[in-house]
Automatic annotation (TrEMBL), chains A, B:
Residues 9-125 form the Response regulatory domain. Keywords: DNA-binding, Phosphoprotein. Residues 140-205 form the HTH luxR-type domain. This is Response regulator transcription factor. The modification 4-aspartylphosphate is found at residue 60.
DNA sequence: GCCGCCCCATGACGTTTGTCATGAGCAGTG
DNA sequence: CACTGCTCATGACAAACGTCATGGGGCGGC
């Protein structure tokens, strides 16, 4: 019935000061949680984690420097005892998959309440996983990426509307090859041209 | 030296429960502020505002139903005494312009601290304006849209990668005309093709 | 060892775009 | 009224793009 003598140490990483601060304040209301560090960017999150060795790292997906998943990957290597979880505004199916592959144990949208987040932090700390049901359903319905490695790479290079010549140069491929990859990628995705292909692939988290 | 007997009544609208709740908690720490209503969508924000008649409405830019600027526009008509301000994660220059045109008196990114936000709420309530300096600078450097009405319209229709034929049909224009508009829009923007034009126009808030 | 799949390339073909010239109708402005 | 700028259109040409057939090299599975 008594509170555990060892509070659960949390790292909070989010580039939006407003949210980070507010979150820290709300989590502080939970007796068994203590926010030991805050960070506003990917690299900073990593540094703070190494310095403060938290039990759980709560990472925003989109941060300057390195995104949450990248931070989680590094953390896993350098601080294996630290559980990681991702909080995000716009959860795309592919992100979830990448996150789980990176050893992330929790994946929740920012639409949850703070109380609920606190519960999930405890769940994660206990060694269990938690994935938002809605996001999980999306991920399942979106399915696996049908794209090969090169197809995805070329598609990504095409994302900003660059012409084939530029893509070819940046990928060190011939223009013909690039067009073949773009063509096959688009047909796999079911898009009429590469631009809609890029958009759809993005929506499904395949790039 | 005593606190004003009439606390400043605030409406909070943000679709992310986590943030909204956390923000409400932080603002509650300010003695002269009281959050009288919360909303998770545009329409709900409007309804709550009419029901609770707050002094200041703090609106997220991106919400389901109607975005912050639309809510501000409606609010201005239906509740002229209520000051409005926008809080946003990704501030694009064009949004700021639209917001100011809608009578919004405050425009801040979510990177500010809660204390700072509280100050700005007071500033706005006092009848003054506050615009984040960084966003203001961006807006100025981005300048006015050089696009004509049709150019912008056609560009928007091209946003999802649709072929010219489809754009022409949807805009009830001939294909040649569409290509002319796209061409002139792209050259005005300084893009090599319409897809990068769309991207750049989006970044500058012109579409 | 054969088969399938991915990787990379080339050449060829038809289609889609981007660009330019040109012109008509129709505002708003000086 | 002349002028300017937006709107809409057409035709024509070059460049970019999408698609297909074809082929060689590599790598893992049956």
């Amino acid at each position: 019935m008594t509170t555990a003598p060892q509070p659960l140490r949390v790292l909070l990483a989010d580039d939006e000061h407003l949210i980070r601060g507010a979150l820290a304040a709300l989590l502080a209301l939970e007796e068994d949680l203590v926010v030991v560090a805050e960070a506003a960017s990917g690299p900073e999150a990593l540094a703070m984690a190494l310095a403060h060795r938290p039990d759980v790292a709560v990472l925003d997906l989109q941060m300057p420097g390195a995104d949450g998943v990248k931070v989680a990957t590094s953390l896993r290597a350098e601080l294996p005892d630290c559980r990681t979880m991702i909080v995000t505004s716009h959860g795309r199916p592919g992100h979830l998959k990448r996150a789980l592959a990176a050893g992330v144990r929790g994946f929740v949208p920012k639409t949850v309440s703070a109380r609920r987040l606190a519960e999930i932090i405890r769940t994660v700390h206990a060694g269990n996983r938690y994935v938002d049901p809605e996001l999980a359903a999306d991920a399942i319905s979106a399915g696996d990426s049908p794209l090969t490695a090169r197809e995805a790479e070329v598609l990504e290079l095409a994302a900003d509307g660059a012409p084939v010549a530029e893509i070819a140069e940046r990928a060190s491929l011939s223009q013909g090859t690039v067009r073949n990859y773009l063509s096959s990628a688009a047909s796999k995705i079911g898009a009429e041209n590469r631009h809609t292909a890029v958009r759809l692939a993005r929506e499904r988290g395949w790039v």
